[in-house]
Specification:
- It is built from 4 helices and 2 strands; from the N terminus they run H-E-E-H-H-H.
- It has one domain (4-118): Arc Repressor Mutant, subunit A (Orthogonal Bundle), CATH 1.10.10.
- The chain is 69% helix and 5% strand.
- The protein has helices at residues 4-57, 78-86, 91-97, 103-118; strands at 58-60, 69-71.
Amino acid sequence: MIDRRSARVNGCMDYFFVYFNLRMVYDLACLFLFFKLITLKVEYLKIQEVKMRYRDRIEVNPDVLLGKPIIKGTRISVEFILELLVNGWDMEQILKNYPQLEKEDILAAIEYSLEILKGEKVFSI
């Protein structure tokens, strides 16, 4: 014979464990999202830092490569770095073949070209 009181208590306990497990999953998901947001914020700050520094890494000198923008201290132009990227080279390949460059130099070249394109104006004729 089934005791209704014990069934009711066991049923409540089952609901408690389901609620507890769901709450734990929810808390873990929130914790995961919190750490993901922190990671994204750190990446954003790194990108902002590169944006601020591209002027320190790119120079335009009329005596070097006819005034094309280059990476400071090298004869590697921003145009050349962009060509490598367009041709399918990734950062690791560029850094391996051109050890005088740093990852920040490549990012600065991309940021420099982005700033140039942002300033471009198009007029219809």
